[in-house]
Amino acid sequence: MGGASRGVSRRYARIFASLAVTLVLVGCGGLGLLPYQSDIQNTKFRSYKQVSLAYDHITPGVTRISDLHDIGFDATTTPNVEVLSYLGIIERFLPRDSIKYDSLDPAVRSCIDARDHCTALVFHPQRLHQERTGNWFLDVLGFERTTVNYGWSAEVVLLIQDGRVAYKVMSGRPNIQDYHDKVSPLGPLQDLGGMAVRTASSAANL
Fold first, then answer.
1. Domain extent for 8
2. Does one domain contain both 178 and 79?
3. Which helix (H) or strand (E) holds 159?
């Protein structure tokens, strides 16, 4: 058990030594070095407003499926588009028994009744960014880590019947701002006790 504990201590000593060297080398230049991540999916649109404006150009009963490419909703070139059969449309628009078929929009009912002549295209355009903010030293030492998620996401559903858009609906989050703050009073030592116990237990089982 003593050897296992010394091994854990040496490991943390190396961690602290590496952190000390990093702090000396980086100094005040550490600002701006916190991780940053972007998640851009299923879109050429740069903002939620652009998605909304393109959506407004779609006219049910008029817009043909061949027109969607120029508008920005092309299922053949846009990645990760969902294509639903009429069965998938039923699951989406009638998810619970409390929603009655007769309460659906007439265009949706007509599309479902058309069966194989109706499909749904579901687009999920989004631009999300994750950024760690706050004090760089507290973050890198593990005492406090503040993460900000921001951006936008949308969902556009188009029902296609006989080559034309029969119905459309859009929903989403135009302005995403989520803050997450994690505080560890002991920093990198927060899990030392648990790790020592696990290491000792593993050594005892050998």
1. 1-30
2. yes
3. strand 144-161
Q: pTM for the whole thing?
A: 0.66
In contact, 62 and 164? CB cutoff 8 Å: yes
Number of structural domains found in the chain: 2
- Per-residue pLDDT of the chain (206 residues), as tens digits, is 555 555 556 666 666 666 555 555 444 444 556 565 555 565 688 999 999 999 999 999 999 999 999 999 998 888 889 999 999 999 999 887 778 888 899 999 999 999 999 999 999 999 888 776 655 555 555 666 777 788 899 999 999 999 999 999 999 999 988 766 666 665 566 565 555 545 555 555 55
162 and 177 fall within a common domain: yes
Where do we find the tokens 């943390």? 12
* Cα separation values, 79 from 49, 73, 113, 124, 173, Å: 20, 11, 29, 10, 20
Burial of 6 (0-12, 13-18, 19+ CB in 10 A): exposed
Q: Which residue has the tokens 């060297």?
A: 21
Cβ neighbours of residue 193 closer than 8 Å, sequence gap 6 or more: none
